[in-house]
Automatic annotation (TrEMBL):
<dbReference type="GO" id="GO:0005634">
    <property type="term" value="C:nucleus"/>
</dbReference>
<dbReference type="InterPro" id="IPR020103">
    <property type="entry name" value="PsdUridine_synth_cat_dom_sf"/>
</dbReference>
<protein>
    <submittedName>
        <fullName>Uncharacterized protein</fullName>
    </submittedName>
</protein>
<dbReference type="InterPro" id="IPR020095">
    <property type="entry name" value="PsdUridine_synth_TruA_C"/>
</dbReference>
<dbReference type="GO" id="GO:1990481">
    <property type="term" value="P:mRNA pseudouridine synthesis"/>
</dbReference>
<dbReference type="GO" id="GO:0031119">
    <property type="term" value="P:tRNA pseudouridine synthesis"/>
</dbReference>
<dbReference type="GO" id="GO:0003723">
    <property type="term" value="F:RNA binding"/>
</dbReference>
<dbReference type="GO" id="GO:0009982">
    <property type="term" value="F:pseudouridine synthase activity"/>
</dbReference>
<dbReference type="InterPro" id="IPR001406">
    <property type="entry name" value="PsdUridine_synth_TruA"/>
</dbReference>
Amino acid sequence: MKADDPAANRSIISFNANDVISLDGIEFIKCEVLSQSFMLHQIRKMMGLAVAIMRNCAPESLIQTAFSK
């Protein structure tokens, strides 16, 4: 499926980020996503990219790269 194919459009119905918890000195946030028919692992990859950017492990420009054709 190509990015410009209308069938490639997906919707996130709701997104909730809960309180920060700390385990063994590492902070975690439980994120709950309710969505409609995303590709296998797609949301996990989007969240992974967001975490990598926030931890300065990836540049913000990678978001534009991910959305380019």
